[in-house]
Specification:
Lipocalin
């Protein structure tokens, strides 16, 4: 009889932990690092955002079933919107551990596999500049960067190597195909009023 009670208690604790894990993700922010960059992973009601410096990238929808996190990227993000990534997650003392189950998207898999994230105690994360265009995915495997700007402005762009030499330039509205195979480049986007600078990581 004691064994039955122990088993029932164990399953109750397990089910409660699954429920609490899911509840703990919604409307939270988690800190991690990737390629020497500090990144905030933000979970809203059903969307997952990455905040890198002043840039907020709305990249994916997420859903939770027990201890499994399912990610499906938005069109134009790192992966196809038809490819789902499955990950096991657990939360212990304000630290989230994420492990790969299955994912055919290399960009997403590289970021989330064996990921350890620490919960942000405060919600004071720098807000993105209102008109700053977002360049993503970054880091990137494909050399194709998307430019997201609310007004669909055409920008003059310049790509620099690590020596500060301009290696590519042109006009872009929403896509820049980088022609170099270096691991790190720098990008300037210019319009009549502003110049925005980015560090591009290519893997």
């Amino acid at each position: 009889m004691k064994t039955v009670y122990r088993l029932l208690s164990f399953f109750c604790v397990l089910l409660c932990s699954f429920y609490l894990n899911g509840q703990e993700l919604e409307q939270t922010k988690w800190k991690t690092t990737f390629n020497n960059s500090n990144i905030i992973v933000e979970f809203t009601t059903d969307s997952l955002n990455l905040i890198i410096g002043n840039e907020r990238l709305d990249i994916s929808t997420y859903s939770i079933h027990q201890d499994t996190l399912t990610l499906i990227d938005h069109p134009g993000s790192a992966c196809s919107d038809t490819v789902a990534g499955l990950y096991l997650f657990s939360i212990v003392n304000d630290t989230m551990f994420v492990e790969l189950v299955s994912d055919s998207c290399e960009n997403r898999m590289l970021f989330f596999t064996d990921r350890e994230l620490v919960k942000c105690i405060t919600s004071s994360v720098a807000e993105p500049e209102k008109n700053r265009p977002i360049v993503f995915p970054n880091p990137n495997f494909s050399n194709r960067f998307f430019v997201k700007n609310a007004e669909r402005i055409s920008y003059y762009f310049e790509v620099f190597n690590s020596l500060g030499q301009v290696v590519q330039s042109g006009e872009a509205v929403d896509v820049i195909d980088v022609l170099r195979n270096e691991s790190m480049l720098f990008l300037n986007l210019k319009n009549k009023e502003e110049t925005y600078s980015y560090k591009l990581i290519l893997n």
